[in-house]
Amino acid sequence: MTGPIHFDDRYDEPDQLRDQLRRLLRHRVLIALGLLLGVLSGLALAQQRAHTYTSTSEALVRSTADPFGAVGVSADNQVSMTTEMQIAGSAAVALRAARLMGQPDTRAAGLGARVRVTNPQKSQVLRFEFTAGTPQRAARGANAFAEAYLGDRKSRNEAAVQRATRALDQQISVLNQQLAGDQLAAKSAAQNQLYTLQKRVLDIRSRDTDAGDVVRRAVPPALPVGPGLRTLLALGLVCGLLLGIVMAWVRSSLDTRIRSVGEAQTAMGAPVLGMLPREGGSGDDLLRVGRTEGLRAEAYRAMAFRLRQIAGPSGLGRVLVVAPRQAAAAEEVAANLAAALADDGDEVLLVDAAPDTSDLATRMPLMPYEAPTLEEAFLPAGSVLVDADLTGRFAFSSSGAYGAHTRAAHRALPDAGSSTVVVTGPFIDNADALVVAQRVDGIVVVADLGGTRRDDLRQVQELIGCAGGRLLGTVLDAGRPRRRLAVPRMLRRRRQYGPASYTDSSTMDLPVQDGTLTVSRR
Fold this sequence. Notes:
single chain; alpha/beta; four-stranded antiparallel β-sheet; disordered C terminus
């Protein structure tokens, strides 16, 4: 047996990273779907952000302590900005802001949820950021919350002054009553105490109770909040690409179909004899070799050459061409392989071992019986010639001419002499194929690239090993054209080849050597 056969396989790369990339590129639809979802998400987010505006105002918080009397105390420590931030976001300030904006008190909670209060580091400034559906409402809300906070703080400062002076006023009233009496000895001490209390009241009331100033008024913003449309679309493309790659990777991991030469060789443990390219045309054109010129016909010729190399000087012998589950691919490969072998001058016999389930005879240009020449003396009884046009002729025999049981396939196989190509039904679903595999010299498995599962190929390999067969290799079919209706094809063949008589609605009789070949009509 020769060494491994190398093909120009686009999925067979030594670099693992490149191989993974090619696995992902098989599922381009999923990657495109991820990109589409990303772009749509970016557009939806941009549409949502297009009607959202944020405006900012700032308020300076003043300390109520005496700046000249608070010696050694910094201005930052005179006011707790953390406490003021909590107060600025409270429900009381939201209620004041709702009234300033002319909104009912019931909407105060909703307005409070739209404002964000922050404090720049190492400052006594509160920043109000208000979000609304229009630029004007955003600016109006930010200014209203700044003014509402300053008004609330001023009210709290005035209330603190009143609480502090209320007790002093009561003491002053008591001293005034004492001075109005006749106790002259105590007047001097009462006057000094009264003077001290009055001075404290004047000091408290003279302090500035103003809460602060608005150092930055909000203006209507020109652009909506958040990134622009281009940024969101770019972000959506990146996220969509990542989503598509993940979906393609998951799909590739769950895919059990044969996608490359390497996967077929790993599943079967045998070389790949050829890869049939995708080609146009009608599916009724079964024979490609000798009748049409193209990549597919050249692939059949190359496959026949490799089979001769594998067989060696002893000759090809009897070769079984079989598919795991789809017999149509095996029929095409078997017919064209026989034509390619005949093209090189071999005496070739094509045997259909499953005529009950196959329409191979109705799809080939069978010739009417003529007296065999000396070159055609190898023809066995019950066979008919097939016109392969430029290639020449090869013989075709159906096991249906020998009976209806499995033993008929044994009788249809010659013992020696010509090269024999046998085709049968699906190897997994047809038990007769396993019997035929025991009588041939080699087996060629046909798999659909992208359609046959790896588990089916492994099962075929196990069955061939159990039957004691010899696995020659695998043929990968990248795609076959669709077939037309069989009835018009048979009618055209009848007009072309003439001597064919129909015995009933389901069979067709062809005159062959030593009798008549009955072919099931499909």
